[in-house]
User: What shape does this take?
Amino acid sequence: MREKNLRFAELWAPPPPAEAPDSRLRLSPMGALLSPPIPLLSSYQLMKTTQQWHRKITQALKKAGTYNSSLEMQIQSLASAMRTLELSTEEIDGLQTTVVWEKTRYGEKMAPHPVFKIQRDAQASVTRQMKQLQLTPEELTTDQTSDPLIDLTKKLLDT
Assistant: This one.
């Protein structure tokens, strides 16, 4: 049993930290100041935090006119599920195989990677919470607050 726990801990070990770029100022052989290296953004830095998702969901609800402070628990739940879904998808993108080998008392057996279950649960939670909050994926993914052409078309159709 202890061996299985060690295997699980090894499987879920966080990725090693990326080496920090050298932020010291560098000089050329002639003594000119060289610009510091531009650090590349990792995919972890591009992902939204739970707070960012919370803010985006709240904005979408306010835009739709359905925001109410009593929805905070559901908003937090959806934000957490969105973050989990993002993290699990990122983890899956880095996998080379869809299975892991688990050690049991009978030997080793092949099992699906646990991140797929996490992703499936997060997808189900996101779908359920969005349905309860009456949100559509477009409301969460669009960054524009309004499109002037669509607003004009709607006004013309309403008159």
The mean pLDDT is 75. The helical segments are 2-11, 43-46, 50-64, 72-93, 114-132, 137-141, 148-158.
